[in-house]
Amino acid sequence: MPVITCIDDLKRLHKRRTPKMFYDYCESGSWTEQTFRENTTDFDRIRLRQRVAVNMEGRTLATKMIGQDVAMPVALAPVGLTGMQRADGEIKAAKAAEAFGVPFTLSTMSICSIEDVAEHTTKPFWFQLYTMKDQDYLGRLIQRAKDAKCSALVVTLDLQILGQRHKDLKNGLSAPPKLTPAVIADLMTKWTWGIEMLQTRRRQFGNIVGHVQGVKDTSRLGEWTAQQFDPALDWKKIEEIKEQWGGPVILKGILDPEDAVMAKNVGCDAIVVSNHGGRQQDGALSSIRALDPILQAVGGDLEVHLDSGIRSGQDVLKAIAMGAKGTYIGRAFIHGLGAMGQEGVATALEVIRKELDISMAFTGNRDINAVDRSAILVPEGFAGRWE
Ligand SMILES: Cc1cc2nc3c(=O)[nH]c(=O)nc-3n(C[C@H](O)[C@H](O)[C@H](O)COP(=O)(O)O)c2cc1C
């Protein structure tokens, strides 16, 4: 058993154990990958204060996200094709999140369906919605999430159209993979992945195949997705979705203060400051840089979460100290899943919990709810002065 000390250890194993096309799908950003890179390097620019002779006993990371109890302010982000990183990946990740006491968010583009994940978990999870042109399908999808007792709808706003990731085109990304000679050669070195995948029936987009007329297999799915994501999404449609859902709504993919104000006016329960992990608008600001101006624009009336670039508990601490109420991890838990399945996701969460706990203590804090700007050192002009 390898000794896992950090998310990078899991990332190395993920790369070794998962087919190249799925590892690359995870570990890439759009176009030049500038925003993908800066999501992590900008976290490094913020420093943590170190305080001494402060009682460090009785620490707690427990808090709330949208009024729901969480063991630490870290949710699992919605990640498409999670069930291709490891067989039954969404079920495994949801179980690990449930055992840990943090929210799991199921992507619309998951392999395991809403019903499948609900059947294998005991606590409610969150469902992430992509808005589609097919209103009939959209309505049924929302109803299915209601029936599964999902406790929040996370509506993603930054993927009406797709940013290009070069590697996905070069690798011929598909689910399940098409067996070209290059793919077969790669799979020969990833046999555990293959054996597990042969043992599951979950190898297609579970929320779509069989639920949309005319989509019976994935060969037509790429075409369908490109046609179906709604490029005409606007705030009025978001309001309609909110009405239809009737429960807590989180709007994901906000990067601009003006949009944050619009989201606040719609009356959502929280926003996620996010650039989709650098997978959409290349050249956009990193999330951690975008956070402060957004917090100022919404003025404390709206719960603000953040994702993109979090690879450690120190990063979580920096986001919380900057003013986010909660965070999400995408690649950090996928590395765990690809490395070691459900146990790997649990390990990723434990790595982050420990880093967060110890780093928080060194800033002189014992309760995550009391952490504020005094815990960090932010370089002058960090948010940038843009014209
Ligand atoms: C492989 C992959 C697939 C993703 N699929 C989705 C998705 O289906 N829906 C969604 O809202 N966001 C999706 N995202 C974005 C994540 O929810 C999240 O915003 C991002 O991963 C955060 O950045 P991080 O990976 O640096 O933590 C995906 C991200 C990755 C890496």
TrEMBL record:
Cofactor: FMN
Active site, per annotation: H276 (proton acceptor)
One Pfam entry name: FMN_dh
Example of a GO MF term: FMN binding
Keyword Flavoprotein appears in the UniProt entry: yes
Ranges where the FMN hydroxy acid dehydrogenase domain occurs: 1-381
Residues that, per the record, bind FMN: 78-80, 107, 128, 130, 156, 252, 274, 307-311, 330-331
Keywords tagged on the record: Flavoprotein, FMN, Oxidoreductase
Binding site for glyoxylate: Y25, R165, H276, R279
CC annotations in GO: plasma membrane
Recorded family membership: Belongs to the FMN-dependent alpha-hydroxy acid dehydrogenase family.
Identification of the protein by name: Alpha-hydroxy-acid oxidizing enzyme
